[in-house]
Amino acid sequence: MTVLKIAVAGASGRMGKMLIEAITNADDTVLAGALDVAGAESLGTDAAAFLGKPSGVLIESDLSTGLVNAEYLIDFTRPEGTLKHLAYCAEHGIKMIIGTTGFDEAGKAAIAAAAQKTAIVFAPNMSVGVNVTMKLLEMAAKSFATGYDIEIIEAHHRHKIDAPSGTALKMGEVIADALGRDLNEVGVFSREGVTGERDPSSIGFATIRGGDIVGDHTVLFAGIGERVEITHKSSSRVTYAHGSLRAARFLSDKTTGLFDMYDVLGLNH
Length: 269
Known about the structure:
Number of strands: 12
Strand order of the largest sheet: 3-2-1-4-5-6-12
Largest sheet: 7 strands, parallel
Low-confidence stretches: none
Structural class: alpha/beta
Shape: elongated
Mean pLDDT: 96
Distance between the termini: 28 Å
Strand content: 15-25%
Number of helices: 9
Radius of gyration: 20 Å
Helix content: 25-40%
C-alpha cells in the first residue's frame, strides 16, 4: 500500500488540527510536514501534540524546512498565504489540495498557472455532501428555469472573514451556468431600502454570521404555490478533512493539472 506523505498549512488552527487528526488516523496517509505563520506561538512544537500522541513533525514557518518530506500540501488558510505556498509547491513538484476561499481573479489565475507544474485540487468546499448537493442544484436549476425565484442563504461562525462563503458563491455559479447566465451579472448580494420588484433573472444571496455555526447552506427555489429548498448542513469540519484526503488519493497518479471535487468524486460524467 502506498502511503501519502501529506503536510498541513495552518497546522495550529481549527481546520489544521482536524486535518492532522484525519491524516494520523488514516491507514494510507502520514503527516509529513506542518506549517504556520512566522511568530505563531505553536512554532517548534509537535504538530500532533494535541492528540496526545506526538508525530515527530514540528510546526515550521520556513517552507523549505516544513515541506522537505512532503509530497502533498493541504491548505485551508488565507489567499495571501496560500499563494506563497502555491509558488513553492509548483517549483518543487509538491501536489496541493486547496480549500482556501476568497481568491480574486488574479489568485485563481495563479492557481491555474501553477497547475501546469504540479497537480492541484482546488475547491471552495471539500465536503463530499456539499459537492453532491452542487450536482443536485445543477439538476434542479434546469427544471426550475422559469417561474421560480432563486435565493441562496448561508450561515457560518462569527470568525469567518469572507462573505458570501466560497461555497455559496460556487452554488450560485453552478446554478447560473445551468441557466446560461453569468453570476457576475445576475447576482444580488445586498438589499436595503426601496429595492423595487425582484428581477426574475436574479440570484439572491443572504449571509448570516454568528456563534460556532460550522456551515449551513440552503438554496430556495420559490415558485407560485410551491417552493423547493435544497439544504446542506455541516456539524463538523471533519467532513472537509475526509474530503481533502479523498482529493489527495485522487492526485496520487497525477503529475500536473487543475481538478475540483467533481473530478475527485466522478460527478463530471
